[in-house]
Write a structure and sequence with these properties.
Blueprint: H1 2-35, E1 41-42, H2 48-52, E2 57-62, H3 67-83, E3 91-96, H4 101-106, E4 114-118, E5 126-127, H5 134-145, H6 150-161, E6 169-171, H7 176-180, E7 184-190, H8 195-210, E8 217-223, H9 228-233, E9 241-246, E10 249-253, H10 260-270, H11 278-290, E11 296-298, H12 301-309, E12 312-318, H13 323-340, E13 346-352, H14 356-364, E14 372-377, E15 380-381, H15 391-402
Parallel strand pairs: 1-3, 2-3, 6-8, 7-8, 11-13, 12-13
Antiparallel strand pairs: 2-4, 4-5, 7-9, 9-10, 12-14, 14-15
Length: 407
């Protein structure tokens, strides 16, 4: 009985002795929370409508106690750090629903976290329903905002220079002579009932698309069942017949394989782009492209592997909507121009991580933010470049791997 009477006293002493440690732990936790930098804009009922009215806003509605919200927090902050720059395509924001219950109720928030995209000028928001990872979220933003990427811009310029770029031009008796009178033309003469022509048709369309940025050539076709006189003038005796025509004159009849790779190589040869066969040719093509003083755009596993297999390849992994990527773009182009003019075995390249064909590449290469810069030497990836993104610093970084005094 005597022992039992001491229990409350002992408990009180323990509580008193532990209270300073508990208080200190809470203070430390609060201090860490205060010190943590938040890139996502905190919205409340007073600021919400004002921010939504100024541009596209992607909002995370959350509760601090929610486990899913806690796991999403670092990714959301990373996304905000990338996106919340000067004149952003979209602003990344957040609303604490434990503080602003009525605001969350107004926007049909029934669970946490709820992610909604508010597009400028539209009354209804769009709820994100995909997986909560960076590729899925960036793809959602890109798709909903229909952002024009670097590659799309270059294609737009190509179309301005040549309205027929990227498509097969269908020629008739009235248009044929004028169309082929100037420049280079790869023309397919066909008959709709011809089985070989039918099998070639999709490849011919892809060939035109693959050459969208080549202003020196057009890809055309003539239906010989409708426009016999044109086909007779060029002595077409079988289908399909592919002729290379320059300034209105037939140069030669194409007799090679009818796959996209071979046809593309043929066109490049005819317009003056060096072409070889096999894997060595593809590697050299990548180097030749880089020698044009432009950044090499990589798309798909095969292009990526070939470009990084030999020599030094410095790659920018990016998203078209990323503000930091847009700021880096002119420097990256200048890096390609300066580097290629002095070094033949270096490629400066870029990979758009938002396209379907590149998503897995970016995941495999452990791209966790944009832009991410990786240098590859003879197929081996080096540590991520985390230095200054100024031209001299980027050049100095490459110099470490080639061992030259000047770049």
């Amino acid at each position: 009985m005597l022992f039992k009477s001491y229990i409350p006293l002992l408990a009180g002493i323990c509580a008193l002795s532990l209270s300073p440690f508990v208080a200190n732990a809470k203070e430390e936790e609060q201090k860490q929370a205060a010190d943590e930098k938040h890139f996502a804009i905190e919205l409340d009922p007073e600021t919400f409508d004002e921010v939504i009215a100024t541009g596209n806003v992607f909002v995370k509605f959350f509760a601090p106690w929610c486990g899913h919200c806690t796991r999403l927090h670092p990714l959301w902050e990373q996304l905000a750090e990338i996106m919340n720059v000067d004149e952003p395509k979209v602003t990344i924001a957040r609303v604490d629903c434990t503080k602003h219950q009525s605001l969350c109720a107004d926007h049909q928030v029934t669970g946490y976290p709820t992610l909604r995209l508010f597009k400028l000028g539209e009354t209804e928001s769009i709820k994100f329903k995909g997986t909560r990872d960076l590729p899925a979220i960036t793809d959602f933003i890109n798709q909903e905002l229909n952002t024009v990427g670097e590659e799309d811009l270059s294609e737009e310029k190509a179309l301005e220079a040549n309205p027929n770029a990227g498509k097969v031009v269908e020629l008739t008796e009235e248009t044929f002579a004028k169309h082929v009178s100037n420049g280079n033309h790869f023309v397919k003469f066909f008959a709709p009932w011809c089985g070989h022509c039918q099998r070639l048709a999709p490849t011919w369309e892809k060939l035109a698309q693959a050459l969208i940025k080549e202003s020196d050539v057009t890809i055309s076709k003539v239906d010989c069942t409708q426009y016999r006189s044109v086909c007779q003038d060029f002595e077409v005796k079988g289908y399909p017949t592919m002729l290379w025509i320059e300034d209105g004159k037939k140069i030669e009849k194409y007799a090679g394989a009818r796959d996209l790779e071979t046809l593309t190589a043929y066109v490049e040869k005819m317009i003056g782009t060096p072409s070889k066969s096999g894997d060595a040719a593809k590697k050299d093509d990548a180097k030749d492209e880089a020698k044009k003083n432009t950044v090499l755009q990589l798309s798909g596993d095969s292009e990526f592997e070939k470009a990084t297999a030999d020599g030094i390849t410095f790659i920018k992994f990016y998203a078209p909507w990323c503000g930091h990527c847009q700021k880096l773009q002119p420097t990256w182009e200048q890096l390609a121009t300066d580097t290629v003019s002095t070094e033949s075995n270096i490629v400066i390249a870029k990979v758009d991580c938002t396209t379907p064909e590149n998503k897995q590449i970016c995941i495999d290469q452990q791209v966790e933010g944009y832009p991410t810069l990786f240098l590859y030497k003879n197929g081996k990836r080096q540590n991520e470049y985390n230095g200054s993104r100024s031209l001299p610093e980027l050049q100095a970084y490459i110099k470490k791997f080639i061992g030259h005094d000047e770049l």
